[in-house]
Amino acid sequence: MAHCPKCKSKDLRRSRTRTRWERWRKAITDKRPFRCRACQWRGWLPLSAAALEQVAAQRRSATDPPNLRGTLLARSNPRHRLDLHTLDRFDDDEKDN
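RESULT FIELD:
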């Protein structure tokens, strides 16, 4: 079970995404938004091992749509590596503004 980074409480719950950026980040990373019921902190934490395996299984089963094969929209390399630390830094910069 995860702890709140602010008050160390275990009373966390998943939070809904609010913006397009958050929905996109949720779709491409293994972090999810959480809220602490004790201190109202809201932020992103990694998923538990069980939840992470469920997400990985869903991603493995997804295929490219057959109508895109052979077109310019077809993916040449469906698995790109992402630098998640860079994404987190971008999100922190956005909060400062």
